[in-house]
Amino acid sequence: MIFKTYRNELIVAASILLFLFAFLFAHYRKEAAIEGATASKTELSQIKEAAALRRVWHPKGLKKRIEKLKTFVPVGKLQWREKGTKLEIRLDAVDGRTLNRFVGKLLSLPVRIERLHMTRAGTSYRLECKCKW
C-alpha cells in the first residue's frame, strides 16, 4: 500500500540513482581512457628514445670506421683481435704522435671502452685497449 501512495517518488528516486550510477560509470571510464592514452604516449616516447640511442651508439658504418683505425699504426706494431662486437688492440713501441692520433680517433668513435692502459718506455709507448660496441 505504501508503494501505491509513493509510487511516483520511488520512480523518480530510482531514476536519479540510475542516472547517478551511469554518470559515475562514464566518468571513471573516461579517466581510464585518459590514463591509457598518457601511458601509451610515454611508452611511445621511450621507444623513440631507445631507437635514437641505438642510432647514435650503433651507426651503420661503425664497423668500417673501426677497421680504419688499423691505418694509423704500422702493421708490425699492431695486434688486433676482434671477436663479434668485442675488440682487443695492442700497440707496441709507437711514438707519442702516433699514439695521440690513434687514441683521439678511438675516443671519437661510439664504442664502450672497457680497458685503456698506456705505458711509457723511454720515447716509445705501449697501449692495451679493450672495447665493445
What do you see in this structure?
With 133 residues, the chain is α+β, with helices and mostly antiparallel strands. It has 2 domains: 2-57; 62-132. Helices cover 56% and strands 26% of the residues. The chain is built from 4 helices and 4 strands. It has helices at 2-5, 7-57, 62-67, 96-108, and strands spanning 78-83, 86-94, 112-121, 124-132. 6% of the residues are buried.
Topology, please?
Blueprint: H1 2-5, H2 7-57, H3 62-67, E1 78-83, E2 86-94, H4 96-108, E3 112-121, E4 124-132
Q: Give the structural class.
A: alpha+beta
How many separate domains? 2
Q: Detail the poorly predicted runs.
A: none
Largest sheet: 4 strands, antiparallel
Cα end-to-end separation: 85 Å
Overall number of strands: 4
Q: Please give the oligomerization state of what you see.
A: single chain
What strand line-up does the widest sheet have? Answer: 1-2-4-3
- Proportion of residues in extended strands: 25-35%
- Compute the number of helices: 4
Listing every helix as H and every strand as E from the N terminus to the C terminus, the arrangement reads HHHEEHEE
Mean pLDDT across all amino acids:
90
Helix % is 55-70%
Characterize the overall form.
rod-shaped
Radius of gyration: 35 Å
